[in-house]
Description:
CATH class of the largest domain: Alpha Beta
Structural class: alpha/beta
Number of domains: 2
Strand order of the largest sheet: 3-2-1-4-5-6
Order of helices and strands: HHHHHHEHHEHHEEEEHH
Shape: elongated
Helix content: 40-55%
Largest sheet: 6 strands, mixed
CATH architecture of the largest domain: 2-Layer Sandwich
CATH topology of the largest domain: Endonuclease, Chain A
Radius of gyration: 21 Å
Number of helices: 12
Amino acid sequence: MTRPKELNPYLSPRAFYGAELRRLREGAKFSQDDLGAQVFVSGAYIGQFETAVRRPQLDISKMFDEIFGTGEHMQRLCKLANEAEPHPEYFAKAAELEEQAETISQYLPMVVPGLLQTEEYARGLIRAGLPFAPQTEIDRLVSGRIGRQSILQRPTPPIFWAVVHEAALRIPVSDGEVMARQLEHLLETARSHHRIELQVMPFSQGAFPLMNQNLKLMSFTNAPPVVYTETAHTGQLIDVLALVAEVQKSYDYVKAVALSPKASLKFIESLVKDYRNS
């Protein structure tokens, strides 16, 4: 069972939802396990709602309202929390799983991984992808992306392994100075975090498995692994174990034919010089 912790209910709509759920549960003298049994989930699952780890769900919120006799109170808070999420709706579940992952393995053909992006690079990338969006929307998405990086600052962060295609490092986002700082950030992060490995897939490799895929493999301590794939404006979680295993085989091949981590850092260093001298 997830033990209650002191959580500022005004930190975010999701935190307020969790605080309200805990207040109602304790007022009814239910344990997390008691409440979980009534909505067909575990007590730990309830604890993740209360500590703002898990995104509120409308169907379960409806059951909470029925149990506590609160009308549509929890349903309204659920909608508010989900509308205020810092990520696109299609990515919300993947972002939630990312926070719980023990290992994260990613391949990107055209961009730097979100967990390793600088704010100015992220802003340029998001603005390019949403040219007609209001500035407030861009700010929200940038904040959400940079906020995800906190998982790498934990005392025991997930093991993060990223393979990035050379194209992602050569396509200028914003300008050369922004790219130079982004690549310097990659170098600093890879060298200072022993649980982060970075490889570059060079143009010279030619064709290889997954070359046109933007994907992320996530494994967990007490849950089966999943794959997240993404294209413009949409994403998909894959949890069919046989398919996840096939993707893992392809990813292992990609790591084998990419530049080694040491050679990759030297390659990125050369690109920084190119951007600085251009």
